[in-house]
Every structure is written in C-alpha cells, then in structure tokens.
Amino acid sequence: MNELKNSKCLVIGGGGFIGSFVVSELLKQDVGEVIVYDNFTRGKESNLTHQLKDPRCKIYPNGGDIRDIDLLDDAMKGVDYVFHLAAMWLLHCKDFPRTAFEVNVAGTFYVLEACVKNNVKKLVYSSSASVYGDAVQVPMTEEHPFNNQNFYGATKISGEAMCRAFADRYGLNYVGLRYMNVYGPHQDQTAVYTGVIPIMLNKIDEGVPPVINGDGSQAYDFVYVEDVGRFNVLAAQSERTDEFYNVGTEVQTSIKQLCDLILELKESDLKVTYKPYSEDDARRLVKNRIGSNKKAHEHLGFVPKYNLNDGLLELIRWREENPLDR
C-alpha cells in the first residue's frame, strides 16, 4: 500500500464536480499538500470553500489549463501523486469535437508527459463507462468490449491507450477509473450540459412535471460522488498499476425508477411526462449500462457507502442549503 503521508498531490480539475470531492478525500489523509490545478471553465472556486480552510490545500495561481505545457510542468514540480479529472463533458464534446480533442486528448498527453518528466510516483486517470457504449452483458466487467460511438467516449479510449503506452515506454505508474453515472453536490445544476438528476430536480422544484425521454426503461448505474472521490484515493494508495476499474454500485436503476424515487423523496404529486426520442437520439441511445465492481472490491477493497436513496437525500439537502449554487 502506497503511503500518502506527507505526500504532495496535484488534482487536475480539482475545482470541478468530482475533483472537489477528490480534494476533500485527500485532506482526510495525512497528506502534506494538495494543489488544485484548474482553469475554472467548468469548476468553481466555491466548490472548494471548506477545503481551502485547510492550510494544506492551495489553488495553483497561474491559470491551471492542461493545454499550457509550461504551466503544467511547473505545477507538477515535486508532486508525488497526480489525479487527472479535467475534461470536456459528453454533450459538450458532441457539439465541439475539435475542442474535445484539444482538451481531452492532447491535454491528457501533456499531463502524461509532465508526469514522466517530473518523476511522479503515480497517476490516477479519470476515464468513463462511455468507453463501453451500450452493454452486451450485465453487469459489465472491465473486459467488456469498447462499443462507444460518441466523441467523448472516443477521447476517453484515447486517454486510456496513452496511459498504457506511457507505462510501457516510460514505466509510468497509473490506474484508470471508468466512472458510471456520477451524481451529487457540485454537479452543474442548471447548465446546458447538466445531468438527468439535476434536470429532474429542477423541474420538480419549479412545479413542472419531470420529463422522461422514451419509455423510461433505459437503466444505468448511479454512483454518489463522495464514493467516487474515495475510490480515487484508494487507487492512489494501492500498489496496483496499469489497471482499469469500474467505479459504480453494480445496482441497475431505470430512469422511470429513478424519477419515481425522486418524486417520493421530494414528496411531490407531480405526474411524469413522457417524450419520444428523436430518430437520431434513439439510434445513439445507450439503453443499459451497469458496471461490475467485483474487480474494484477484490483489488482495492472498494465498497460503495451510499445507496441511491441515501445519495439523493444528500443531494436534495445540499440543494436546499446552497440555493445560489443551483
């Protein structure tokens, strides 16, 4: 087990949704310093309000863009562990594929290059279950074929392949994490490129019936963001290297079940509205994606702390306490 005691950690994208929770989980350890490297295009400094009260936590002062090779190299000097979470999101990649390449592909190459140059002990790379596309088996193990068809998934496959190539060529220690559907506080609640859960909650809070595309039978694996942050730390602490892990609960939840649960927790009597998919969206729809966490449990000892009910309650409570972040 890698000791994080007195280590210097760099969290790339540490002001973001998942990144801010990685920072929180690292500060629970006996680390020496946690540096947040973020250009705050999607992340927010307000996501780090509590973390920055800890003198061990600092924001890198000069911009924090992974496309700036010199800045990235400077930020990584003396760093022991790097957590790479900076990326353009799925729908953003769909609309801006060239920028997606520059950030998610070229940017990841620059991160890997800087890790090697600065003799980083280990990189934890944030990939995605999008690499799998639609499931051909449930639950999906890490051996599931890559059936991705979108730009975002393509960038994550590229990142995984580059991690493996850097490990082979330069001996870089890394672990890659394939996130299922992550939800929780600090996720964009009102942005154009937000997730299904904030969209449903926003509708209900406005007194408007939530909308389900299709018949609601499409099913996914929803994992609470604090569990994802904890998994990042476990991956850094582990002696495992050149491995990829699913990060999920292995629990299948349909969109209809999700919506019914949210309505119940919100004590709402609104009725769901169903909207048919466009022909184009229906063709590309991922209908079923649930990840096996057997390997994560056996190799890293990962057990999710939150079930969907408890995680949603935490999110609802956070929204009520932080209306300005919505």
Task: List the keywords.
alpha/beta; 326 residues; 11 helices; seven-stranded parallel sheet; 39% helix; Rossmann fold; three-stranded mixed sheet
Q: Would you kindly provide a written description of the structure presented here, covering whatever features stand out?
A:
With 326 residues, the chain is of the alpha/beta class. It has a domain at 8-181 and 223-248 and 290-304: NAD(P)-binding Rossmann-like Domain (Rossmann fold, 3-Layer(aba) Sandwich), CATH 3.40.50.720. Helices cover 39% and strands 16% of the residues. It is built from 11 helices and 14 strands. The chain has helices spanning 17-27, 69-75, 90-95, 97-117, 151-170, 196-205, 225-237, 255-265, 279-284, 294-300, 308-321; strands spanning 8-12, 33-37, 57-59, 81-84, 122-128, 174-179, 181-183, 211-213, 219-220, 222-224, 243-247, 253-254, 273-275, 288-289. Helix 1 crosses helix 7 and helix 4 (97-117) runs parallel beside helix 5 (151-170). The mean pLDDT is 94.
Short description:
This protein has about 325 residues and is an alpha/beta fold.
Write down the overall geometry.
globular
Estimate percent helicity.
Answer: 25-40%
pLDDT < 50 stretches: none
The secondary-structure class comes to: alpha/beta
**Total DSSP E strands:** 14
**Corresponding CATH superfamily of the domain at 8-181 and 223-248 and 290-304:** NAD(P)-binding Rossmann-like Domain
With strands numbered from the N-terminus, the spatial order across the biggest sheet is 3-2-1-4-5-6-11
CATH level 1 class label of the domain at 8-181 and 223-248 and 290-304: Alpha Beta
User: Would you give the CATH topology of the domain at 8-181 and 223-248 and 290-304?
Assistant: Rossmann fold
Number of helices: 11
State the distance separating the first and last CA atoms.
39 Å
Overall average residue pLDDT: 94
Strand content is 15-25%
The run of helices and strands is EHEEHEHHEHEEHEEEHEEHEHEHH
Rounded Rg? 19 Å
